[in-house]
Amino acid sequence: MSTQYPSPKARARSWRKPSVLPGFALTFGTTIGWLTLIVLIPIATIFLKAAGLGWQQFLEVGFSSRALAAYRLSFGTAAAAGLVNAVFGLLVAWVLVRYAFPGKQIVSALVDLPFALPTAVAGIALTALYSPNGWIGQVLEPLGIKVAFTPLGITIALVFIGLPFVVRSVEPVLADLGRDVEEAAATLGANRSQTFSRVIFPAIAPALLTGFAMAFARGVGEYGSVIFISGNMPGRTEIAPLLIVTQLEQYAYAGATAIAVVMMLVSFGILLAINALQAAGRRRMGA
Amino acid sequence: MKLRTVTEGKGTQIVLIAIALAFLAFFVLLPLISVFSEALKAGIGGFVAAIETPDALSAIKLTLLIAAISVPLNVVFGIAASWAITKYSFPGKSLLITLIDLPFSVSPVVSGLIFVLLFGANGLFGGWLAAHDLKIIFAVPGIVLATVFITFPFVARELIPLMMEQGKDDEEAALSLGANGWQTFWHVTLPNIRWGLLYGVLLCNARAMGEFGAVSVVSGHIRGETNTMPLHVEILYNEYDFVGAFAVASLLAGLALVTLVAKSVLEWRFDLHSGARH
């Protein structure tokens, strides 16, 4: 059997470093081809379609008062849920990394449940729990707290969806954090809360922010877990993704497209910010 | 350890652990328990009766079919992409990785919408498809497309860090010993990455079977034809057939639990990093 060493000439492409491993054309071609077909062309279509609307119509349907109310609700509840998760996700990550307790591995697996549980299942389960005759709802009802069919209910669904993003972002950074800096701080006379706020928190802040941003981005676009608990009243509890579906059902393609493009631009902005954050984090850690 | 001051006191630890566990119990465990409890409200008989309806059975079949088509497609893509990205150096690599991750940052509903704009009756190719009597939207191909789009990054993003870490020494050794490219891949690379690959497949499959938003937009909700399990849950729920809805939902929750157990076993036994970002 002949070896597959390529001749140096055949490999001398200027735009990539030569390699003895075969299969570049096959794998790179498959990757680019499949990516273009499944992801890039479909996404380009929606921007083309939006461009075809013209500014006037785009602003009219993309920023109608109903659409604005939906953005406010989606971004507001996603931010609120992200903040809750930033606090409790950090706590969960801290407890999982630093402390020993029985059943820890089961707890750690449970954190991933929102990734694995289909969103529609989470949606109906949360609605059943928080509706006025549900397990939690009937406790809150006499206290005058309404959860189902209010923005509070949407926030709770987004807390569920977003939790693993924060925990799984913070966990590895916390685990890698050398105990020596904490020991140094303690030796130099810092108490525990000073050590946390001056030494530990600055080191994990980029990861925490990344987790928050990912939970936020996911929350803005979330559909399945929200629509059951939200009640879907236009202008009050109608999230932006639901408004897209409503527009589609009325064959209002222009409206659906414009709202989708506004949401995508915001999501891509967040994605870019996350990448910049991670790059900054890597520089900070000296990797 | 001498420096016991570098951690919190026992009391603080217990309080923090209690708060964290209470939060998880309230926000994560309780919804999971309520799925099974609601599903069994009418007893085992009611549960079985709800699953055995023809519509539920056809939804289960469709969901399995969709996963059986879309997961292998993404496995082939994921392996090709991670081979290209980790075994060669070329400019624009980080842009390529960002583009592969793109579907994660698109709302599921928007993911469905883009295929409606392409292949729907008023879409870019709608006229051509109608003229040739082909149906993509409101049919199985549309559901497959939307699912492939949604699960596009799963396998690749598990494999890229793993293969990056493993480098290419093993492959180069195999080649220099006379193996050809395919032999190197089957006998050297694949055994090296099999657990990471399995991990990616698990996550990809869970999402493919559970996807709701994107599939809901392209499926048309035709009972017995284009209804996947999550969509069937919605229909039953909206018809106030709660036992039926939760019965089908409990099957999906069971799938999620199996996925989590398998994922944890892989993580503990093979020390795979948990994917932080999906």
From TrEMBL, chain A:
Q: Which InterPro entries match?
A: CysT_permease (IPR011865), MetI-like (IPR000515), MetI-like_sf (IPR035906), Sulph_transpt2 (IPR005667)
* UniProt subcellular location: Cell membrane
Keyword flag DNA-binding: no
Can you list the GO cellular component terms from the UniProt entry? Answer: plasma membrane
Q: Which residues form the ABC transmembrane type-1 domain?
A: 71-274
Q: One MF term from GO for this chain? A: ABC-type sulfate transporter activity
Q: What is its main location?
A: membrane
The record's listing under SUPFAM superfamilies reads: MetI-like (SSF161098)
Q: In this entry, which stretches build a coiled coil?
A: none
Please list every transmembrane segment annotated in the UniProt record, as residue ranges. 21-48, 68-97, 109-131, 143-167, 199-217, 251-277
Topology term for the membrane: Multi-pass membrane protein
Q: Does the keyword Membrane apply?
A: yes
Q: What UniProt keywords are attached to this protein's entry? A: Membrane, Sulfate transport, Transmembrane, Transmembrane helix, Transport
**Quaternary state and partners of this protein?**
The complex is composed of two ATP-binding proteins (CysA), two transmembrane proteins (CysT and CysW) and a solute-binding protein (CysP).
In the record, the note on similarity to other proteins reads: Belongs to the binding-protein-dependent transport system permease family. CysTW subfamily.
Q: What does this protein do?
A: Part of the ABC transporter complex (TC 3.A.1.6.1) involved in sulfate/thiosulfate import.
**Could you tell me what this protein is called?**
Sulfate transport system permease protein CysT
State the species of origin.
Novosphingobium olei
Q: What is the lineage of its organism?
A: Bacteria, Pseudomonadati, Pseudomonadota, Alphaproteobacteria, Sphingomonadales
From TrEMBL, chain B:
Membrane topology value: Multi-pass membrane protein
Report the residue ranges that make up the ABC transmembrane type-1 domain in this protein: 60-261
Keywords (A to Z) from UniProt: Cell inner membrane, Cell membrane, Membrane, Sulfate transport, Transmembrane, Transmembrane helix, Transport
User: A single Gene Ontology molecular function, please?
Assistant: ABC-type sulfate transporter activity
Give me the segments passing through the membrane: 12-33, 62-85, 106-130, 136-156, 242-262
- Indicate whether Transmembrane helix appears among the record's keywords: yes
**Record flagged with keyword Transcription regulation:** no
Q: Which Gene3D superfamilies match?
A: MetI-like (1.10.3720.10)
Gene Ontology cellular-component terms for this entry are:
plasma membrane
Task: Name where it mostly resides.
Answer: membrane
Compartment(s) of residence: Cell inner membrane
Description of how the protein assembles with itself and partners: The complex is composed of two ATP-binding proteins (CysA), two transmembrane proteins (CysT and CysW) and a solute-binding protein (CysP).
Task: List, alphabetically, the NCBIfam families matched.
Answer: 3a0106s02 (TIGR00969), permease_CysW (TIGR02140)
Q: What's this chain's function? A: Part of the ABC transporter complex CysAWTP (TC 3.A.1.6.1) involved in sulfate/thiosulfate import. Probably responsible for the translocation of the substrate across the membrane.
Q: Give the protein's recorded name.
A: Sulfate transport system permease protein CysW
Organism the protein comes from: Novosphingobium olei
Q: What is the lineage of its organism?
A: Bacteria, Pseudomonadati, Pseudomonadota, Alphaproteobacteria, Sphingomonadales
